[in-house]
Design goal:
By secondary structure, the protein is of the alpha/beta class. It folds into two domains: 193 residues, Rossmann fold; 164 residues, Response regulator (Rossmann fold, 3-Layer(aba) Sandwich). It has 16 helices and 16 strands. Strand 1, helix 2 and strand 2 form a beta-alpha-beta unit. The longest helix has 30 residues. It is globular. It starts with a helix and ends in a 12-residue tail after the last helix.
Length: 418
């Protein structure tokens, strides 16, 4: 072998060893550096207030685990992106995070964003846990292995509140509904009516549910919809709009007496954000689906509730957290527990660890069904309103129920069969 060739081979071998050494160093650094979790939430626009609450929940969970050594002895870092409360914004945020190497996501906070993002997760080699989307197809006909719904679905939530309100308010003979003009809105209307009819049949009563009023979530003026509701022959109202659109509807409706027309108003989960905005003008007999009821007897039963509340107050200075804080806190806890169980952050391993996982939350034990990735735990229906204690509003009463008792059977890949 010539000297020139021998020299070339020695140089090449040394370079290869150097590259391998750098590669090993990069892997070691990645394994010892922070665990990066992508968080896609509405940080601007009409969903910004809800986005801030969701982000706070994830931050509290992260601080709690980091203060005890992190996950797998590594600190957790949240990488936040604004989904702008739109489907396109959610897809852009997911692609950006995956492009920067972040494969574990908290996002799809509402149904449109979840429906847009879930199908692209396999392509991105990422997985996502979602805090609040309710549309049924996510865990049925549009099931994706890389997506987990860690929230009630439309059947669990809206059949539940329809059943409870019908049972409790026996003088309401007719219900009006206003829901988003979307697949999710139609799910809401369908299952609220199911819950109403179930309670009415059990009591031997006749209760009517009128055809829903459909509304856009991206508008500021609800006069036309309010006029339709005011002219309806109903005594009860269910509002399926959430966050800022729900508050706008109720504020505008109050100007024409909508809060006085209805003996009871059911809400799809905006709860304390309504009371915070409307203060003592909050409608009487406003009942909301709720993820968490700190400060109530029901809330005090769970040992993780007080630390979440205290962490939220320390982070924000707000002593009246909306219950959605617990939904994102739960999502973060799910990922941390799954990473720990998987002994790593590889996408498929974390998915496998999440399937069938049961872990502790601020409302008790939470279980993720293996078959369809539907999460099940404790939920509440809470009366929200004005009260004398500071700051003048809060949760007045709360009724807990076990989501597993009312959930539909799993059928991933197939539409729900009633």
């Amino acid at each position: 072998m010539s000297m020139k060739r021998r020299s070339f081979l020695q140089t090449s071998a040394a370079a290869a060893v150097g590259v391998m050494g750098l590669s090993s160093m990069n892997v070691a650094r990645a394994q010892s550096g922070p665990i990066r979790i992508g968080v896609m939430l509405p940080m601007s626009g009409i969903g910004a207030e809800a986005g801030a609450a969701w982000l706070a929940g994830a931050k509290v969970a992260t601080e709690q685990w980091n203060s005890k050594g992190g996950v797998l002895k590594r600190q957790v870092e949240l990488v936040v992106r604004d989904d702008k409360f739109t489907s396109a914004g959610a897809v852009a945020a997911a692609r950006e995070l995956a492009g920067s190497g972040v494969n574990l996501l908290i996002g799809g906070s509402q149904s449109p964003m979840a429906l847009a993002t879930a199908p692209i997760l396999p392509e991105l080699k990422a997985m996502m846990v979602a805090p609040c989307p309710t549309v049924m197809s996510l865990t049925h006909e549009n099931f994706q292995r890389n997506f987990f719904r860690l929230s009630w679905n439309a059947y669990i939530a809206f059949a539940g509140i329809g059943n409870m309100l019908t049972d409790r308010f026996k003088d309401v003979e007719t219900w009006s509904l206003i829901v988003p003009d979307s697949e999710n809105g139609r799910d809401m209307a369908r299952f609220f009516a199911t819950g109403v009819q179930r309670a009415a049949a059990k009591a031997g009563r006749q209760v009517k549910v009128l055809d829903p009023v459909f509304a856009s979530l991206n508008k500021a003026d609800y006069k036309i919809e309010i006029n339709s509701l005011m002219n309806a022959p109903s005594q009860g109202l269910f509002v399926g709009l959430t966050a800022a659109p729900c508050i706008s509807l109720l504020q505008q409706g109050r100007a024409v007496g909508m809060d006085r027309k209805f003996k009871v108003i059911g809400d799809a989960g905006t709860e304390l954000m309504i009371a915070k905005a409307m203060q003592k003008s909050t409608p009487a007999n406003l009942w909301s689906i709720s993820y968490w009821v700190p400060g109530t007897e029901a809330g005090r039963r769970n040992p993780m509730s007080a630390p979440l509340y205290e962490g939220y107050v320390k982070l924000t200075g707000d002593r009246n957290p909306p219950s959605i804080v617990q939904s994102s806190h739960r999502c973060a806890l799910a990922l941390f527990n799954a990473i720990q169980k998987a002994n790593g952050t590889e996408t498929d391993a974390v998915i496998a660890a999440l399937e069938g996982l049961t872990f502790d939350t601020a409302v008790g034990a939470y279980h993720v069904r293996k078959e369809d990735h539907q999460g099940l735990g404790t939920a509440y229906i809470a009366q929200v309103g004005a009260r004398d204690a500071d700051p003048g509003y809060g949760i007045v009463d709360a009724i807990a129920y076990n989501e597993a008792d009312v959930a539909e059977p799993p059928s991933p890949g197939k539409a729900i069969a009633m």
